[in-house]
Fold:
Amino acid sequence: MRRHLLGIEQLDKEQLYNYLDNAKSFVEVSNRELKKVPALRGKTIINLFLESSTRTRASFEIAGKRLSADTINISGTDSSVTKGETLLDTARNLQAMSPDAIVVRHRESGAANFLAKHLKNCAIINAGDGMHEHPTQALLDCLSLRQHFAEREKGIEGLRIAIVGDIRHSRVARSNIFAHKLLDNEIHLVAPPTLLPPNVESIKEFGPKVKIFHSLKAGLEGADVVMVLRMQLERQTDNFVPSLEEYCANYCVSERILSRYAPNSIVMHPGPINRGIELSSEVADGKRSIIERQVTNGVAVRMAVLFTLCAGNITQEEK
Structure:
């Protein structure tokens, strides 16, 4: 059992599927009238969110409570970081209170890895670090795809995945690239040149199944899955596109485009959605969208992660 979950890059295919298998069983818990199991009774989970979040923070809190863990939430404005305390000192003080896991979200890439190197007595779970990774988002995305394609008697390998939008600043994109590489899927990265990573040549190290497109139409062609990303203005220090209007004109994913170039595709989005900029409301609310399923599965996946890393000698059958 791995001690931490810092990124998808560190997993192999078996470990990826193990998380998905565990999450599948926790989906059922959330459908019960009594949405609680005693799997982590007596365990303590600290959610240290030093960057704003709605879906990830709420789902980790709900996941901990549904597992019967004692769950404590700390935001940036509530912590002594605002008084000048370093991240490491904050985390060491929290570790001194004997939690079983610290879930951390931070604006700096590598923050979760940094804490994992220095804290030895609790699990560290990366809830998003800068532009590095967001592993639980990729896991819930994969679970959502697994459910969708299972209903059509298919698996989640051998698919064509189009990732569209602000890939340069997206930790969701990075984690999904690693996940779909493990699943041997063909990945189309669709963005203007300025919204691709500055070291875009390194993407080629993923192999021939990762392809780059600057044309939305070409990138979407034949896609089974279209993952749309938000324009992350809060991470941008420069103007990466001439205007949002021009970006929308060239890269907004609409039903008209999908029906022509990816007629059998489904659409995902990690949220929050900038409607009418990267994704039309017609698609976001339409029959292709599995966005609400993604949000629902966020709880099950985070239950699976907390259970895997905190349960110790408890077997899943005892949950």
Summary: The CA atoms of residues 41 and 183 lie 34 Å apart. Residues 291-310 form the longest helix (20 residues). Residues 8-133+295-318 form a domain with the Rossmann fold fold (CATH 3.40.50.1370).
